[in-house]
Design goal:
By secondary structure, the chain is of the alpha/beta class. Helices cover 32% and strands 21% of the residues. Strands 6-5-4-3-2-1-22 form a seven-stranded mixed sheet. The chain has a seven-stranded mixed sheet with strand order 7-8-9-10-11-20-21, with helices on one face. Strands 14-13-15-12-16-19 form a six-stranded parallel sheet. Helix 4 packs antiparallel against helix 5 and helix 4 runs antiparallel to helix 8. The radius of gyration is 22 Å and the shape is globular. The termini are close together. The relative contact order is 0.14. The model has no long low-confidence stretch (mean pLDDT 95).
Length: 466
């Protein structure tokens, strides 16, 4: 059996790892889109390392676009195998992939107008919303902890990772002759304490481990300190400066966590009397799916729901769907909070809000998650004094803040604690993926400290016999 790594190799986006069994079956672990800046990212997403028609199954750990975003593209190119995931992952993909297709159509339309003016040939979007809709027929879902027999030689099940609604460690058992090899692929690992989701659970012993490393060299502050800092930023920006607080946030997962936190502030009488806007149609639809899957909720939020039937809504919270209503936010002079996608500030409505407010000293931009290098979010966090948005230059006069603890990724100590369910002596090889190289090197050292050996940090297109 062979495993080959095609994405999220010494970087954070584009998760794709191919297993080829001795029986000739091809299993793709995740099918993620590279996310970043410009045509370089587009070219990476169009690079085909295998004919999609040859892939038998996609094992999907969760719905985030850097893990699921190329499924419609592979469908467009002929993939007709099954996509195996949890129920909640399928439900979220049904809105997230269509949204990604719609964004690509819009972006390519805008980009092509410039190319036509320059006398250059136009380009096609990777896929359309219609491609995303069609690929949903290939999804096959299983609950957590239920083993699925794919064929006479392959079984798969998911155990909860607490990273996102429906996220799971994929445990794949592959029979080769009289031997059964067990592969554990973590996808993204959540935190042991989450405002909404149940914590990660232990998973069965594996022979080969593939583990993420996004925060492999960092530690989070505790959630109480993060809440205090959020309230402090709200008061400083909206009460003292009478300005706007912009929170670029991933529509699925992070937005619901921020809204739930503000909802608790509201219930406790801590939130100032200001309007809060969630300006993201995808976030609105995702919130509805969160409401459908309370089986994924932890005890804390279920207790809140005993007296607050809607933990994602309060009187001063407004969900914005229509473009016309989004544009009206530009003319609001009163202090307010605007939560809008995307979290890395690379696409979506947040770019328009940044363009209209980034040069105002009364504005605060609060990053609440990871921003990959070369993204607009990363440039702002690194202290850029001027940025380009939609081809126009803007001076950065707004205050730029960051709270890491709202990230859905475990830090390196939490990853180590999570992996203590494994006997390191029985793990023949560990592959570290989905992280910047320095983070991976640190995680490798930490894993070695608890007894793991034969730890590999794959480069792109590297293949291993297991």
């Amino acid at each position: 059996m062979k495993i080959k790594f095609f994405g999220a190799t010494r970087e954070v986006t584009g998760s794709k790892h191919l297993i080829v069994t001795n029986h000739g079956k091809k299993l793709l672990l995740d099918c993620g889109m590279f996310q970043g800046k410009g045509l370089n990212t587009d070219a990476k997403n169009r690079e085909i390392f295998i004919n999609p028609e040859e892939i038998d199954h996609i094992i999907l750990t969760h719905s985030h676009i850097d893990h699921s975003g190329l499924i419609p593209f592979y469908y467009k190119l002929g993939f007709r195998g099954s996509i195996i995931c949890t129920d909640a992952t399928r439900d979220l993909c049904s809105i997230m992939l269509a949204d990604a297709g719609h964004i690509q159509e819009q972006d390519v339309y805008t980009f092509n107008k410039k190319r036509i003016r320059q006398g250059l040939p136009t380009i096609e979007p990777l896929y359309t919303a219609d491609d995303a809709f069609k690929c949903m027929s290939l999804f096959y879902t299983i609950p957590y902890d239920r083993k699925l027999q794919i064929d006479e030689n392959i079984k798969v099940k998911f155990t909860n990772t607490g990273h996102l609604l429906g996220s799971g460690v994929a445990i794949i058992e592959i029979k080769e002759g009289s031997t059964i090899k067990r592969i554990g692929y973590t996808g993204d690992i959540g935190r042991p304490v989450n405002r909404i989701l149940k914590p990660p659970v232990s998973f069965p012993q594996v022979d080969y481990l593939i583990v993420e490393s996004t925060y492999g060299d960092r530690l989070h502050e505790d959630l109480k300190a993060a809440d205090e800092k959020l309230l402090e930023i709200v008061f400083e920006t909206c009460v003292k400066k009478r300005g706007k607080l912009l929170i670029p946030s991933f529509s699925v997962g992070r937005t619901q966590e921020i809204v739930y936190t503000l909802n608790n502030f509201y219930n406790e009488g801590k939130l100032p009397k200001i309007e809060v806007y969630v300006d993201s149609p995808l976030a609105i639809n995702a919130t509805e799916i969160f409401r459908m899957h309370t089986e994924c909720f932890n005890k804390d939020i279920l207790n809140v729901m005993l007296y607050d039937s809607d933990p994602f809504g309060f009187n001063t919270l407004h969900y914005i769907k229509r473009v016309e209503d989004s544009k009206k936010l530009n003319y609001i002079e009163e202090p307010c909070i605007i939560i809008s996608a995307s979290g890395m500030m690379e696409a979506g409505r947040i770019k328009h809000h940044l363009a209209n407010n980034i040069s105002k000293p009364s504005t605060t931009v609060l990053a609440v998650g990871y921003c990959a290098p070369e993204t607009l979010g990363a440039r702002l966090l690194s202290g850029a004094k001027q940025i380009s948005i939609h081809g126009n230059l803007y001076d950065v006069k707004a205050n730029i803040e960051k709270i890491d603890s709202y990230s859905g990724h475990a830090d390196y100590k939490e990853i180590i604690e999570f992996l203590k369910c494994q006997n390191p002596v029985e793990v023949k090889q560990t592959f570290i993926v989905h992280g910047e190289y320095n983070a991976q090197l640190n995680l490798k050292k930490e894993l070695e400290n608890i007894g793991f050996r034969n730890i590999t940090i794959p480069e792109k297109n590297q293949e291993y016999l297991i």
